[in-house]
Write a structure and sequence with these properties.
The complex is a heterodimer of chains A (144) and B (386).
Chain A: H1 22-29, E1 36-38, E2 44-45, E3 60-61, E4 68-74, E5 92-98, E6 105-110, E7 123-130, E8 136-142
Antiparallel strand pairs in A: 1-2, 1-3, 4-5, 4-7, 5-6, 7-8
Chain B: E1 6-13, E2 17-18, H1 27-42, E3 51-55, H2 61-68, E4 75-79, H3 88-99, E5 105-111, H4 132-135, H5 142-157, H6 161-175, H7 189-194, E6 197-199, E7 202-203, E8 211-221, H8 222-225, E9 233-241, H9 244-247, H10 257-260, H11 266-276, E10 285-287, H12 293-302, H13 311-316, H14 333-337, H15 343-354, E11 366-370, E12 378-385
Parallel strand pairs in B: 3-4, 3-5, 10-11
Antiparallel strand pairs in B: 1-8, 1-9, 2-8, 5-8, 6-7, 9-12, 11-12
Helix pairs in contact in B: 1-2, 6-12
The chains are: A mainly beta (144), B alpha+beta (386).
């Protein structure tokens, strides 16, 4: 039986946000996926920063994305390098090229899938992980 | 331009220890020992130091002056970019000397891994709005980050674990009888393949060591170097920098595909060769920053020893062995000798250019040193025999 990817350890992450990144996390709490898009030239950027690197505009939009994408790369973390990781292995950090948001590659994790079925290029779909600290974090499942 | 106008005239180091084993010595002790040894090697009084050059956070110049009795400083500067700046700190020193800001500049680097291990160093980074994106994914060590790059190299270029293994095996072979090396147990391909995976596709032997130590070099003008005790090692060229397509992204991971497959060193390498007036084919020995085996291969591509996508075949051919076309990390590198944030590579290159290296490459006249594929600025250095 294949190993199943679990969620990364909650204890490693405490959400810090500012006015440029908060809309992303607010959307996740609302159960939908977004990415930062320049309000002037339309270029996507993630993580969101105070200026568009293409045109220096500070206007931003937060479109509702379909929540699908393609797996660009991944790793399978199998060793606890700090004690907080024990009990949450193996987990699978993953880079997702988001559909309808060219240039926005999201750093996330694959969950709930058989590790031996993971392939670069695989279609993935967002899911939201409810944490004990009430933060919701976007994760991805293989979409097949 | 700084090309060939300065020289390394002194080299000093502490012993190398496994992680945490340098205690109860303090970091300032290790750094001080390295600086004193480098001055002694150069035959220069410590009181003549008038410049300090660092990378990766550096050290407290006031404390170092007070501790060692350096009477007056005219230059103190630091490259950021963690291990990426190691080779470039020599260029900072050279720039200070050429510009006349300082006359005798010490470059010193060191690390001591007690409380904070490098293997989980990103966990010690500040929680920021930008860092939240990789922290949420459970990426807490550099190994996790570089595993994402390696996975894509394997996918796009067809690289295999056997190719990554060749980097580790070559390094171990160089370390086997090297007096400084911490890892001297023979390593076979079977050992490598059977090793526990840490972050796919990287296993134990793809990771550099975690060790303690400090290393310093003394830089002064090439003209003055001729009158000093040691045979000078000429700074042929040194550059640092990087492109946005890589730099914004090492912890953001949104590089365009071509940059994602590289080590981020392409612009640094281009400028380095132009400044030094040499080509990849002129390099006789290379000390390539080896925090992770796949990044050695990517740097060999970025520095023009082979084309992008051909680095795996290049190392598999035996090219980086001591008897190959480009001997790499002749002391065992950070994978098998010791990890001192890139300073070991400068040390070994100086030894090669002096002709005193333990694994001396016969007739070597030019040595390349690279700083780590990391956050920008990254750096490269070419040293020449006098």
């Amino acid at each position: 039986m294949s190993e199943i990817a679990v969620a990364p350890p909650e204890a490693l992450f405490t959400l810090t946000a500012d006015r440029w990144t908060l809309p992303f996390w607010d959307a996740a709490t609302g159960g939908w996926l977004t990415a930062c898009r320049c309000g002037r030239c339309g270029a996507f950027r993630m993580p969101p920063t105070p200026f568009c690197p293409e045109c220096r505009s500070q206007d931003v939009e937060w479109p509702r994305l379909p929540g699908t994408g393609r797996l660009f790369s991944y790793t399978v973390v199998r060793r606890a390098v700090v004690p907080e990781m024990e009990g949450s292995l193996p987990y699978v950090p993953a880079l997702i090229d988001l559909d309808e948001a060219p240039g926005a590659r999201l750093i996330s994790a694959l969950v709930g899938c058989a590790i031996d079925r993971i392939r670069i290029g695989a279609p993935v779909r967002v899911t939201f992980e409810q944490r004990v600290d009430r933060v919701k974090v976007p994760r991805f499942r293989l979409d097949e | 331009m700084i090309a060939r106008r300065t020289a390394i005239v002194g080299l000093g180091a502490t012993p190398y220890w496994r992680r945490g084993q340098s205690a109860p010595r303090s970091m300032i002790e290790l750094v001080g020992q390295a600086v004193l040894a480098a001055c002694d090697d150069a035959g220069l009084p410590v009181a003549e130091i008038d410049g300090l050059s660092y990378y990766s956070g550096g050290f407290d110049s006031s404390l170092l002056m007070e501790t060692l009795g350096i009477p007056e400083l005219r230059f103190s500067a630091m490259l950021t970019g963690s291990g990426g700046g190691s080779a470039g700190a020599v260029g900072l020193a050279a720039a200070a000397v050429v510009s006349g800001l300082a006359r005798t500049v010490v470059v010193v680097g060191g690390n001591q891994q007690g409380e904070t291990r490098f293997g989980s160093i990103t966990k010690s980074y500040d929680a920021t709005p930008e860092n939240a994106f990789f922290e949420a994914a459970g990426l807490i060590g550099p190994g996790h980050m570089f595993a994402l790059l390696a996975q894509r190299q394997m996918h796009d270029y067809g690289y295999t674990r056997e190719m990554f293994a060749e980097v580790a095996l070559s390094a171990r072979d160089n370390a086997m009888d090297h007096p400084l090396a911490l890892m001297k147990k023979p390593l076979t391909l079977d050992d490598y393949i059977a090793a526990s995976p840490l972050a796919d596709p990287l296993c134990l032997y793809d990771f550099c060591l975690e060790s303690d130590g400090a290393i310093a070099v003394v830089v002064t003008s090439a003209e003055r170097a001729r009158d000093l005790a040691r045979k000078p090692v000429i700074v042929q060229g040194c550059t640092h920098g990087g492109e946005r397509s890589w730099g914004r992204s090492l912890y953001w991971m949104n590089m365009p595909e071509r940059a994602f497959l590289s080590s981020g060193h392409q612009s640094v390498a281009r400028d380095l060769y132009a400044q030094a007036g040499v080509a990849p084919s002129d390099i006789d020995v290379a000390q390539i920053y080896d925090h992770f085996t796949p990044m050695v291969i990517a740097q060999l591509e970025d520095y023009g020893f082979c084309k992008p996508g051909e680095g795996g075949e290049f190392v598999a051919s035996g090219a980086i062995r001591r008897n190959g076309s480009l001997p790499v990390n002749t002391d065992g590198g950070q994978l098998s000798c010791a990890y001192v944030w890139g300073m070991t590579h400068i040390r070994e290159a100086v030894e090669q250019m002096r002709g005193t290296a333990f694994h001396q490459i016969a007739g070597a006249e030019l040595a390349l040193v690279t700083g780590g594929p990391s956050n920008v600025p990254m750096s490269g250095l070419i040293l020449a025999g006098a």
